[in-house]
Write a structure and sequence with these properties.
Elements: E1 3-7, H1 17-31, E2 35-40, E3 55-58, H2 69-84, E4 91-94, H3 97-110, E5 114-119, H4 122-128, H5 134-142, H6 148-158, E6 161-164, H7 167-173, E7 181-183, H8 190-196, E8 215-219, H9 228-234, E9 242-246, H10 252-262, E10 268-272, H11 276-284, E11 288-291, H12 306-313, E12 318-320, E13 335-337, H13 343-355, H14 357-374, H15 377-390, E14 398-399
Parallel strand pairs: 1-2, 1-4, 2-3, 4-5, 5-6, 6-7, 7-14, 8-9, 8-11, 9-10, 11-12, 12-13
Helix pairs in contact: 1-15, 2-3, 3-6, 9-10
Length: 402
């Protein structure tokens, strides 16, 4: 049985994209027969309502804020010693590189172990656009006291394999390297898929599919890059439509003011932060999930929205923009694209799409097929496993999932 070490500075009790992926991907590797150990910081724990098939090693002496410069150098030595105490592994996978990355790379080289790094987009992009001071550049060049940018870019160049969640993130990596780069997409755990999957044949029982006013939906953090403002603008061209917004964030107040200014406030239902089951209830009320993300001037862009997969499970079609990693999911007629620079055209695209029930059915069926066949964490783990076991050094970049 192969032994895998997964390291992530993001883990439960924090509930977020990376912590959830760490948990579910580790379980996915266990499901295909790997012996998995997950290393996480001092407050790590497995919540009572989550089942872990892997071993959790809590790094009780961790100091995640000591990532770079002089404090980071001292912490890297401690992490190296800690990892050495865990024994030997057949492979190491970094699911967030900022804290454990450099020490894990040193440990991998000293123990002759292959190491991979997974990037989600935002963490790499933040370092690509960051500018170190000239003194830090010189210090990092001459000594081992390096900035976070220097450590991150060094990691990108030196690990054996890099995996990304989308083509958008892969393009960021290609600014630094092109070899042994793979796109996996993101996924859902097998249990969620089996429990929540709702075929289009069942939709008549939900009341969805009525020819009366349609309901658009959005789920996510209310920040500028999510571009919820665009959806409010669309409502001016869709007077019979309503919009459900699930989530909170710094733009909530300004978005409510925007709705009032546009005169569409009665068409919008702000649900705020909701419990897990209430999220699924909200999805079931939607006729179309809309994720019109846009790239900000600083380069920030969305990587891959797990909510797309959750909506797909419930038979809800997807609408995305051409900016961000979500576009990968819609490539094979799995949904529709929205031109975020042309609101009137996007409104017409939505109306035309939802009026064509056969087209909606095809889009949902295609999306559900892709999800169930390739985008569970067990399938993603198998794809990663195939790559690292083949050990194709300097292979051209390619995609694991279609």
């Amino acid at each position: 049985m192969n032994k895998l070490l997964i390291l992530s500075v993001d883990y439960f009790p924090k509930i977020g994209g990376i912590s959830l992926m760490t948990h579910h991907l580790a379980n996915g590797f266990c499901q295909i027969g790997w012996d998995v150990t997950v290393v996480a910081p001092r407050d790590a724990l497995v919540p009572a309502d989550y089942k872990a098939s892997y071993s959790l090693a809590v790094d009780f002496e961790s100091k995640p804020n000591c990532r770079a410069n002089f404090s980071g150098l001292k912490e890297r030595k401690r992490i190296f010693k800690y990892l050495s105490s865990l024994g030997r592994f057949d492979h190491i996978l970094l699911l967030h590189p900022f804290y454990y990355g450099s020490a894990a790379l040193e440990y991998a080289r000293k123990s002759s172990t292959k190491i991979s790094c997974y990037f989600h987009g935002f963490e790499l992009n933040s370092q690509l656009i960051h500018r170190d001071k000239i003194t830090q550049k010189v210090l990092g060049f001459l000594t081992n006291v390096k900035s976070l940018k220097q450590l991150t870019l060094g990691l990108v160049k030196k690990v054996d394999f890099i995996f990304t969640n989308s083509s958008e993130t892969a393009e960021l990596v290609r600014k630094v390297r092109t070899s042994n780069l793979y796109i996996t997409g993101c996924g859902l755990d097998v249990d969620t898929v089996s429990e929540k999957l709702l075929s289009r044949r069942c939709l008549s029982q939900t009341g969805r599919g009525s020819l009366s006013g349609k309901t658009l939906g959005f789920i996510g953090r209310l920040v500028e890059s999510k571009n919820v403002r665009f959806l409010l603008d669309l409502l001016r061209f869709l007077p019979d439509f309503s919009l459900i917004v699930v989530g909170t964030g710094p733009e909530r107040e300004s978005l409510e003011e925007r709705a009032l200014t546009l005169g569409v406030e009665k068409q919008v239902k702000w649900l705020g932060k909701v419990a897990e089951e209430d999220k699924w209830d909200a999805i079931d009320q939607m006729d179309l999930l809309c994720l019109p993300s846009r790239r900000l001037e600083g380069g920030q862009v969305e990587g891959f929205g797990i909510v797309m997969l959750e909506a797909t499970l419930r038979g809800v079609p997807i609408a995305v923009s051409h900016e961000g990693g979500m576009k990968d999911f819609v490539l094979c007629n799995n949904g529709i694209y929205l031109d975020i620079k042309n609101k009137k055209n996007s409104a017409e695209v939505i109306s035309s799409f939802l009026a064509d029930h056969d087209r909606v059915d095809r889009a949902v069926n295609n999306a559900q097929l892709l999800l169930t066949e390739k985008l569970t964490y067990k399938k993603i783990a198998k794809g990663i496993c195939d790559v690292i076991e083949l050990d194709q050094v300097d292979s051209e970049s390619q995609t694991i999932v279609a």
